[in-house]
Fold:
Amino acid sequence: MKKKISRKKTAKGLVSELASSGEISPPVSKPKLESFNHKGVVVTPYNGKFDGKGHKITGLKSKFPGLDNIGLFARLGPNAVVKNLCIEGAEVEGRSKVGVIAGQIDEGAQIINCKVNGSLITAEDVAGAITGDSRGEVAGNYVIGGNIKSNGKAGGVSGMTHGKSKIRNNQVINTEIVGIGAGSNVEGIAGEVRDESLVENNQVINCKIKKGVTSEVIEPDDYEDILKAIRNSGLSLEQSPNDCKELGEEALRNLIRTNLNTKYEGLATAETFRKKGKTDILILKDDKASFIAECKIWTGDKVVHEAIDQLFGYLIWRDCKASVILFNKHNASFMKIKDKIKGLLESYTGYIKTLDSEHGGEWRCKYHSPEDINHEVIIHVFLFNLYCKK
Structure:
């Protein structure tokens, strides 16, 4: 007799039990999942029979940008069967072999009669809504809505097929499939078909397939260069706090902007209208994405959330990298302020995760926009101590 699933489970525990028993006991309704350890791993894939019995999993998040084999199952072995499962609103991200149901499926594995609705799949290389990399059979599945994005290979069902893989009788509907860069390989069903793979009787309906899309964001190296210029300006101010005694927020901002313009040749502007207001500092990239910074003098905990609120008021969909620059001028207890910044940043609505800032007195976090959960923004926060005892 198969083991039944308890309704009172943590997200991680629920996934583990679902995967081990292959049975969902009604009425488990829309279990919400956060990041969890994959049941299948590259060395030891999942080899069980998993029947979702038509139930739905919502809110799956499995985001590991530096890793391969990302999905509900990292890898399905040659005896694995996953069927009759619906996953809605998933967000999966990895380096390569990224799919909502499975990152990779081996020869002999099957994914049958599953649905992936309104999900976001992102990879540096191989990405698909059902599976990233297929060597097995993917049949009778539905992909409805959502977005699949890859710098390499992307398909509505599978990013790549190998060996004797069979991709048949699947439907991809109202889905956007995007290949970034000239070398990307993007198709409605399978991004790249290799060897003796069979791709037949599939349908692509009302989908947007974009190949060779040029990145419209601030590139990582450019972002780091801008942050370095701000860092150097702030360190210079910290070494001469007496010179800053009479300077207000606007004057401090203009000092940093002036230093930025020694490198960016007048591209750094202030008081530039953007969306809902005037930015403190804006550097426009090719009339597309912008770097935007908000400057604030520390007046208490609330200033952190206020600054982020203002930033999001300026950002359009192309803008994915920004900064908050905080100046402490009036508080002798600088270390107490410094110790609480991380908690304040992580308590902001829309917080996703904290990234490595690599520098003391700096923090870097990823958020989603209050207006669009799919618009993710990295915000780098500086705290400069300009306090000078009178």
